[in-house]
């Protein structure tokens, strides 16, 4: 979750139609299965701060209105939403696989939940998006966090970003 997503979630919590998010929503649809050949992203995470906690990827429709929208709202509207979580492996590359509903363009959000509490900790956790957009106090535009998937598995690399100073995020090596 980015800072803007935290602010958006707080605003949504005040609305009468807000439905609490379920951490399991989208998991069954998103989980890759052995020997599956349909559209999916194989995402290699680069620049992890450490090997603590969990990593999560979420897939959204490729437009600004739906990108980082509440998962319940997307699912109830019949829109694409997928989620995959796993513990950070202690060694080797960190690769997440998430199924896409069909070939096309989607926005993706990645979280390194270092304390595994399923909440974004602004000063602790890392976030990442395809295209590695510059992050600040607002969420990136969908087009800058989008990736294309074909009819089979598509490999991409996402560099994780962590809080640097008071107002910015960035990769650890920059």
UniProtKB/TrEMBL annotation:
The organism sits in which domain of life?
A: Bacteria
Q: Name one Pfam family in it.
A: DUF2141
Q: Which InterPro entries match?
A: DUF2141
Q: What is this protein called?
A: Uncharacterized protein (DUF2141 family)
Origin organism lineage: Bacteria, Pseudomonadati, Pseudomonadota, Alphaproteobacteria, Sphingomonadales
């Amino acid at each position: 979750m980015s800072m803007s997503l935290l602010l958006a979630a707080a605003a949504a919590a005040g609305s009468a139609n807000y439905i609490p998010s379920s951490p399991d929503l989208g998991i069954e649809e998103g989980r890759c299965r052995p020997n599956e050949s349909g559209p999916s992203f194989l995402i290699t995470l680069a620049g992890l701060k450490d090997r603590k906690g969990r990593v999560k990827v979420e897939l959204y429709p490729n437009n600004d209105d739906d990108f980082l929208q509440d998962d319940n709202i997307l699912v109830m509207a019949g829109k694409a939403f997928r989620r995959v979580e796993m513990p950070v492996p202690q060694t080797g590359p960190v690769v997440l696989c998430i199924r896409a509903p069909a070939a096309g363009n989607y926005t993706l959000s990645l979280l390194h939940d270092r304390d595994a509490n399923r909440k974004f900790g602004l000063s602790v956790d890392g976030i990442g998006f395809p295209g590695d957009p510059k992050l600040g106090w607002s969420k990136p535009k969908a087009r800058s966090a989008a990736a294309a998937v074909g009819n089979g598995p598509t490999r991409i690399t996402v560099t994780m970003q962590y809080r640097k100073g008071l107002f910015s995020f960035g990769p650890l090596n920059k």
